[in-house]
Structure formats: C-alpha cells, structure tokens
C-alpha cells in the first residue's frame, strides 16, 4: 500500500488480502490497539512490508498528521504504542489564518504521502509557517528514509514555480504559485521516478488555480508544471484526497473542479489526460453543462479518477451525483454526458466524493451518497449498468465517509466503510465490514461491543488501510485505530500520550493555569467513557474509574475520561516554565510527558466543539448567535473561552464558580474582524467549572456585516487563534 487508494490506478482496493475474508469468525474480530499521534489524520496510513530498522525487519505503518509529523509504527504490534521513529517538520498553519472552516484547527500534512521502495524513501508535503514571518505559509517537499526518517536527496525543497498566463493573481504575463491560496489536498503518487503533486483551494476562495507539478524523485527538482486556468481562475485539483491516476504508459489523469473553461488553456470542470513526461495536455473531456456546474458548486472533480484495469477507460464522479465512464483513448472534448466515448449515469442526488472499484470480470464500482446509502453498480461491456446491484443504508446520517475494498483477486470481497454520526459533536465514527457481493449483508461494525471497539472521530474522506489481516483506520481523534482478529495479547498494552491540546482550539502549545485541556493518547485507562463527576465537596472530581492526571504531582479536575481521550483542567497552581503531566491508572503511571507553561493561552469555544467556525456565542437576548440569528452592531454578545490564566481572587481547582467571580490577573481585550471591541465583563463563567471564562463584549459599530467575522481574545500579550467567528448584522 505505497499510495493512497492502494495503487496508481486509484482503485481503492487491496486485491491481495488473504487473511480477512467473509468466512472468518467475526465475533473474534475487534480493536487490537491504537497508535496515538499528535494531530488529526487525513492521510491514509501506508503499509510497507520488510523494512529493516535497527537490524530487524519490520512491517511498518507510516502515519502523517496535520501537526506536520510522520510516525513509523510496527504494523505487527498494534499494542505497542511507541513508534519506531517519528519526525516533525515545524509549525503547521492554523486555519484561522484563512478564515477557513472546512478543516479545523490546522493544516500540516493533508495529502497522503507516497513510497518508493527501490530507494527506501517516503515523499510527503508539509504546510509550514515561514520562520520569522507570521502569516506567511510555504509548502515543503520532503523525502524521508523509511528506516529512520532522516531527509534524503537534499530535502526539504520549498515548492515554488511560475506559469505563463494572465489569469487571477498574474503579473507581467506570469502566474506565481502562491502557497497562501492553495491546499495540497490530493495524495502524492510516484511513477517511473516521477513524483506528482496536485493542489486545490481553501473552499473556492481567493486567486487560486489548479496546479499539478512533476518532480524528479531522486533530486527533488521541479521538472514540469501544469496550470488548469492560466488565463482565468480556479479549476483546482482536490479530488477528496484521491491522487492523480497513472496509466500503464506513465500518463496522468486528473479531474478539475469549479473554474473557468475555454477549451484552449482554461479547463475547469474537466477530465484531463496529461503526458507523464512534461504534463502537456494530450486529451480531455468536459460536460457541456460545465457553466451550470460552476454556478451550482457541483464541481466535476470531487471524487477524482479511477482507471479501470485492462481497459482504456476511467471512472469519475462529481458533486452533481453523476458517475462518468470515459474512454481514455478518445475522451471526446466538450460534449453531452452521454456520447460515443463518455457515459454519464445519475447514481445519487447529493454528490460523489468517495469511490472504490472491484476489478472482477464485470467490475463493480462502489459509491457513497452523502447522508444516504452506499451503492454498488456493475460495469458490463464497458458500460455502467444504471440498476443498483446492492446497497447499504447506514443507521446514522453521515455526510462524509471513508471507503476501501479488500479481496483475494475475484474472491472474498469485503467493503470497509467508515461513517460518522453528524448529529453529535466530534462526529464519532463507526467502521463497517460489508459483503462486497451484497452490501445489505453486514458482517460486523465497531459499535457492536459498545466502547470496546470504538473508532473515535471520523476522518472525512480518509481511506482505511487493509493489509495482512488488519485494518488501520485514520481518525480525527489524533490516532490510527487498528482492527483485526483478536488474540490473547490484544488487551495488553502500555499507555501513551499523543498530544495535549487546548480544549477550545484543539491546538497544541504551552498550557496556562486553569486551562481546559484535552489529552489524546492510547491505553490511558478503562475503555468505558466517563463524564465529569462531583466529589464530596461539590467540586469536579480528580479521579474517575481509577484514572487521574497529575500536573507536577497535583491532581487535575477531570471532565471526561476514556482509554484514548481525557479532558482535564490544568491546576491553577501550575507555575512553569514546564510541568510534568502524568496519567495514572489504578495507582500506576501509564503515560507521561512534559509541556511548557505560560501565563495565558486563550481560546474561544466553537459552537460545535470542533475548534473553529461559529462560536459558542450568545446574543444580547440570550439566543445563540448564528448566521440566521446575527448580533446587531452595538449589541452585547457573550463569548466563552478558556486559558485565561491566574485570577483574582485565586480560583480553586474544580469549583463550580459562584460569586465573587474571579477575574484574570492579566488584561483582556477582544477584536471582531480586526476592530477593537469594548469588553464589559471578563471573568469566571457563573455555574461552570473554574477555568471557563465568560467575556461580554459590545459589537463595534464599524464591524463588518457578515456571518463569519473572526473573533480574537487577547489575555495580556497572548492572543487566541482566529478560527472562531461571530455573525453580525
């Protein structure tokens, strides 16, 4: 599994899985362990067999995170939470920098890396803030040794280029690649020593373009560039994380999203066949309704392309819900959905983002309809049969999913589907194992045994990795969860801390006295979840089911505990400059780390608990602020935050705040979309645990009238992230 979606054709299928098959004893299948990491995992874990590390051969799972880290784990020891090695590339880019809420709270490694076994190298792109230049991002290309993670071939290389054109952002007939306008969303792919990297946008905003670049994998030197809108704008390549597809000749296939089209140099809403050598355009197909697709944000490129093995055809799907089968030897250029060389079938009404293909005699394509069903369609005589072959209706509404197929050639097909419950904060995920020949036949799901097999937060559009009898599932809970056939050692594991983040922003950093923090990790206590409890003095208890967290030996109030996540309040007596954090279970230290301490580390709570987007903000009349219920200029809004630091009078750990309400030692100020706002109260939130701040502010008369004004709270000289917004009228 050296590429995202398993192969260069992007089928989403492991066709060589011999252990996991429909006939296994599914009652003996479950969670084997958790690899705790330091950030969300959008990238598909990559499984590489037979890597020699420290003189021993290992099957290795490589995990890339949005905190700009790469971890190497022993694939055959899911109970061992310590990585074989790990590296970090420096600060990721906070998404508040772009007022971008599709991804929260930071952008680090988003596109899945790729591996070249002949050189024992893993290629990955990180998104970094340039040192000494706040707010200026850069993309860095790294080639890492599979053995120990050191940089190869003179890396990292900063990604920078220009392209001739007079389109958006151009100057003097040239367009410069602007890292602040682009998102490295597609997976990377390598072929014949050529490394291909594609770029999308931040939710269709700004002067972005669709860029595809070819690098020499042995030198990290840029060799060729394609821009999909040089005399226009947009036309990005995002493909829900799917990599460019590569055919047997080494040519490249990508599908562009919303953007300008002229059939000459601008190719928005198009399926493109590019030369693998110089990225010149060889052929293309564009549906004649491209302008309507633009207007309705129904971009053609949402699902990317799958090349059908042993044929000259590709599959693609877009937000309009139409599945296309296009002949690659004659794509047809501009034309209707159904021609001699292109077929379009309306398979759902809400769009295609994830697909997988089983290459049997009559290939079967699997597609998921957002908040709907997973469906299977058969391809017969190089044509999609529009009749549904089978389908599976999840028990909860899930807009996004992850999808993969495992099989032993044309036998023993299993569909692995991850979905999330959109009705709950954090979108808790579920892994389903389905019969690939009849999707209505469910073999197993991770909710069957309660919390014992819990997945964690769904990683949207992230592909599970099935390899050698195990399923490695990325999550947004700072972890990869491993499932497989249970054995006698499945429950024995050491604990580990992957990350300690602010509970409001979900960003790592120095902690402050009284800050609400979330500790992500593995095996930190019992599997069962436990919410906050009161002790005999009416305070939030500092122990739950035998679990406690110590900061320099002082027990912290616990707001939530589970094996993989603990929410706690940093004791107000923590003084720094560092503090030792220990997770205790049944009197034993199961995990520990050291974090920095600073006087304040403020962050505002988001309404959905994600770390960004609409804030948990009340209007003057007590109603919840929202785009449909904005706050008038001049009115008072109430913000809720944490990380305000020490208070006067001194706050007591775990107390539910009552009068007199403590206020921060340091001054508190607030800006709304950059405009200073009058603070009428900043102090403890009545009735809530000490550590939660309430801040009442007057919306400035000059505030921007919009549903997404960025709000920043500064305590002393420490500003909050700018990812939370307020709606203003």
What report would you give on this structure?
It is a single chain. The chain is mainly beta and 729 residues long. The protein is globular.
Topology:
Blueprint: E1 13-14, E2 29-36, E3 46-53, E4 56-64, E5 69-74, E6 85-88, E7 93-94, E8 106-107, E9 114-116, E10 121-129, E11 137-145, E12 157-158, E13 162-164, E14 170-171, E15 174-176, E16 182-183, E17 189-191, E18 194-201, E19 211-216, E20 221-227, E21 245-246, E22 252-255, E23 271-274, E24 281-287, H1 290-295, E25 305-307, E26 313-317, E27 322-327, E28 333-335, E29 342-346, E30 355-358, E31 364-368, E32 374-380, E33 383-384, E34 390-392, E35 401-408, E36 411-420, E37 428-435, E38 438-445, E39 456-457, E40 465-467, E41 470-474, E42 479-485, E43 496-502, E44 516-522, E45 530-531, E46 547-551, E47 554-555, E48 558-561, E49 565-569, E50 578-585, E51 588-596, E52 603-604, E53 613-614, E54 636-642, E55 647-648, E56 663-664, E57 668-672, E58 675-684, E59 692-698, E60 709-715, E61 718-719, E62 724-726
Parallel strand pairs: 1-35, 24-28, 53-62
Antiparallel strand pairs: 2-42, 3-4, 4-5, 5-6, 7-8, 9-10, 10-11, 11-12, 13-15, 14-15, 16-18, 17-18, 18-19, 19-20, 21-22, 22-23, 23-24, 25-26, 26-27, 27-29, 30-31, 31-32, 32-33, 32-34, 35-36, 36-37, 37-38, 37-39, 40-41, 41-42, 43-44, 44-49, 45-48, 46-47, 46-50, 48-49, 50-51, 52-54, 54-59, 55-56, ...
């Amino acid at each position: 599994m050296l590429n995202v979606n398993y192969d260069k054709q992007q089928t989403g299928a492991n066709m060589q899985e011999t252990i996991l098959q429909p006939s296994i004893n599914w009652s003996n299948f479950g969670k084997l362990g958790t690899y705790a990491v330091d950030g969300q995992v959008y990238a598909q874990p990559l499984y590489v067999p037979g890597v020699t590390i420290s003189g021993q051969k290992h099957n290795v799972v490589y995990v890339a995170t949005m905190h700009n880290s790469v971890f190497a784990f022993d694939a055959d020891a899911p109970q061992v939470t310590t990585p074989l090695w790990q590296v970090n590339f420096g600060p990721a880019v906070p998404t508040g920098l772009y007022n971008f809420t599709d991804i929260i709270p930071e952008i680090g490694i988003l596109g899945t890396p790729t591996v070249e076994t002949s050189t024992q190298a893993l290629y990955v792109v990180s998104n970094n803030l340039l040192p000494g230049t706040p707010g200026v991002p850069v993309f860095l290309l790294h080639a890492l040794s599979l053995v120990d993670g050191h940089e190869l071939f003179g890396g990292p290389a900063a990604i920078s280029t220009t392209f001739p054109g007079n389109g958006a952002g151009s100057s003097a007939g040239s367009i410069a690649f602007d890292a602040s306008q682009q998102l490295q969303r597609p997976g990377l792919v390598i072929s014949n020593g050529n490394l291909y990297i594609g770029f999308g946008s931040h939710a269709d905003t700004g002067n972005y373009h669709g860029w595809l670049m070819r690098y020499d994998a042995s030198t990290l030197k840029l060799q060729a560039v394609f821009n999909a809108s040089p005399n226009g704008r947009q036309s990005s390549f995002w493909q829900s994380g799917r990599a460019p597809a590569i055919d047997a000749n080494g040519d490249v296939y990508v599908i562009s999203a919303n953007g300008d089209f002229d059939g000459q140099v601008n190719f928005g809403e198009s399926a493109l066949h590019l030369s693998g050598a110089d990225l010149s355009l060889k052929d293309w197909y564009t549906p004649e309704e491209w302008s309507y697709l633009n207007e309705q944000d129904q971009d053609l490129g949402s699902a990317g392309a799958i090349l059908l093995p042993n044929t000259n055809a590709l599959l693609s799907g877009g937000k309009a819900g139409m599945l296309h089968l296009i002949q690659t030897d004659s794509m047809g250029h501009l034309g209707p959905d159904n021609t001699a060389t292109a077929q379009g079938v309306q398979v759902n009404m809400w769009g295609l983002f994830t697909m997988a293909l089983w290459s049997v005699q009559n290939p079967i394509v699997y597609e998921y309809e957002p908040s709907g069903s997973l469906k299977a369609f058969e391809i017969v005589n190089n044509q999609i049969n529009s009749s549904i072959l089978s389908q599976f209706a999840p028990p909860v509404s899930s807009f996004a999913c992850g999808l993969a197929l495992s099989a032993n050639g044309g036998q023993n097909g299993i569909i692995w589907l991850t979905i999330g419950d959109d009705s709950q904060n954090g979108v808790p995920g579920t892994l389903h194992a389905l019969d690939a020949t009849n999707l209505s036949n469910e073999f197993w799901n991770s909710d069957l045994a309660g919390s014992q097999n819990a997945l964690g937060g769904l990683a949207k559009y992230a592909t599970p990795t099935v390899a050698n009898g195990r399923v490695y599932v990325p999550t947004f809970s700072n972890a990869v969860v491993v499932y497989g056939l249970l054995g006698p050692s499945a429950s024995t594991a050491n604990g580990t801390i992957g990350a300690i983040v602010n509970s409001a922003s979900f960003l790592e950093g120095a902690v402050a006295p009284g800050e609400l923090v979330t500790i992500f990790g593995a095996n930190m206590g019992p599997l069962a979840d436990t919410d906050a409890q009161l002790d005999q003095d009416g305070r939030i208890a500092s122990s739950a089911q035998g679990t406690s967290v110590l900061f320099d030996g002082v027990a912290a109030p616990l707001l939530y505990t589970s094996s993989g996540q603990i929410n706690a309040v940093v004791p107000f007596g923590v003084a720094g400059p560092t503090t030792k954090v220990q997770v205790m279970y049944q009197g034993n230290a199961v995990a520990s780390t050291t974090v920095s301490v600073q006087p304040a580390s403020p962050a505002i709570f988001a309404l959905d608990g994600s770390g960004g987007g609409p804030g948990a903000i009340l209007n003057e009349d007590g109603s919840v602020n929202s785009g449909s219920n904005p706050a008038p200029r001049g009115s008072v809004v109430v913000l809720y935050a944490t990380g305000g630091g020490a208070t006067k009078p001194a706050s007591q750990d775990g107390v539910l705040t009552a009068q007199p309400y403590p206020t921060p030692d340091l001054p508190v100020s607030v800006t709304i979309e950059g405009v200073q706002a009058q603070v009428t109260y900043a102090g403890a939130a009545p009735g809530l645990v000490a550590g939660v701040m309430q801040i009442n502010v007057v919306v400035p008369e000059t505030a921007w009238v919009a549903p997404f004004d960025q709000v920043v709270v500064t305590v002393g000289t420490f500003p909050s992230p700018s990812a939370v917004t307020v709606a203003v009228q």
